[in-house]
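Protein data:
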Amino acid sequence: MPACVRCSNVDNDCVYPESRRKRIYKRANVKEMEEQLARLEEQLNLHIVNGEKIRGTTGTKPAPDPQPKEMSTAIDAPEYELPNSGSGYDWVSDGQLIDLGVSEPLPPFEVMEELHDIYFRNQHHSMPILHPTLYLQAIHGPPNKRPPMCLQYIVWAMASKGNEKYDFYADAFYKRARQYANADEMQGDGDHLALRHLQAYIIMAGFEAKCMLFTRASMNSAKSVSLVHSLGFDRVDDPDVSPASITVSSIGWIEMEQQRRAFWGAFAIDSHASISTGWASLIYTNDEQLMTRLPASEDAFLFGHKEDAPFLDEVFTGAFHSAFATTLVICHIFKITLNHTSRHSYGAAFWKRHKDLDHKISSTFMFLPERFQSPDYKSDPVAAHTNLNLHATTICLHYAAVQMVDKHSHSEATKQQSLGRMRISAEEIVEIVKAISPNSSIYKSVLCALSLYCAASVYIYFARDNPVEGLSANELANFETILRSMETTGNDHKITRALLLQVYRDAERYGLSSILHLPDTGQITEVDLGYCPSVFMSVKIAMIRQPITSPLQVGRLPLGGAGDLAFQDLTYSTLENPLDPPDISTYTDDSMNNGRQLQDVSMPLWPQSENDLSSQMLESMTSQEPTLNDRFELELM
């Protein structure tokens, strides 16, 4: 035993005197902390023992029914039926669930990783508001740093939608995302809602729009718009606003860019809701308080390179803008064009708006990014989608002008000029359709479906304007090309199917079916088209303005009255969509409560997933071709 020299000489025990020792004072709550630590250690040991017992069990569980029944949403329904150790998955610890405020087991870790990979590969491009690296770091970080459960579940729902392996789980993920979002809203005064909740509302609205639940999508869109304004994201780049006056402080350029993208994501959802339903828009781009720049390029966002993007009005004077910004410009032009054409006023005000919009559309064509001006549509679907939408807005604008000329006997020269613009735009749309693959993903876009309908309506008008001679051989060939494209896409896309049926009805209304060689409408409805929802009240841009009334459908669009174009009402009896309209009884007031005890949605066994997906995700994203990195608008959110 070591000892000092003095103690060794006198043969004494070498002990440091108590009087010279530094006194150590225990904190008052040390005893309580020690007791709490002991309880936690006891619980941890109990979980470990239980886990060993579970892993020690043998046997396999039956495979899920290939055609499962509708998922139960009762409160007393069983929890997730997770696989045992034989499938290679680990249980999520109860302590982790408590930290997250979750009342049911999460999906297996490998399943979550695969869903994240699917989302950022296939779905992120349609609404790029999440920063992949920061989001995945938060997911794998401590519980208090993770995104809210509503955002996690809606990301999984969006990844599952349309995926062959996980599509059956999309509805359950979506319902839980809504439940967690509602529960978060009821906490406190709601002041804790921030960027992550805003992102959840935007993605949720996009998911609902894909499922054609436009009423719910519009409600979540309205929530996102309100939250955007309360957080001050509509004035991120306002030099007159001090950082202290903004609710959420900015942490670096990437954080500010996320705020910009959240605002413009809400703008895109609001625009699509207005275009798809005809309802009023909630974000006004002519507002002087709109002081948020357009999103920067995707590479700058991913790698954190600071880039000063232009404001919206600067795009029309030649400012360089990214592909995502181009999508937003298209939304802006489409929205204000439909707002203009839906008005019934005539006179100097109408023609002034017409001239201003025509100039704005021409400026957009002129100042498109270089890759969009002489594009290779086969290799660049973003360019194809952008040009389709711009030509569709041109048709909408000049169709309204032609109708005004016919109604008020205006100058024939004005009519011929507008007819010429319509003809050119329709021919350009046909050329784009010929250039891209019939199975291209751009056909699944709502605005693409509307573009094809606009082009078809041009040829219907030409046939109606000259019923004796009808269409020329070239015009008839173009019309048939559009119909074939819509028929092919309509097999998988309900909105395109609805608009195709409307084309047939428009031709039948004017007695043009024989001239245009169209089939009988009744047979198409029953055999070829199946279920066709009533959508696009905004198509009262009035390719044909004839009053058709249709009753209100529960959970769908309230359709137009006299003077509004609405599609024929059909029942749900022939619906074949994997996400059928949910059972209304599962959404009663009694099925939800204000606490954290959430409604349970039972799920079958998880399918097997690939390993080591997380290590490949970021590398695969950054190694994609540039044209795919920017593919933002190929689908409706």
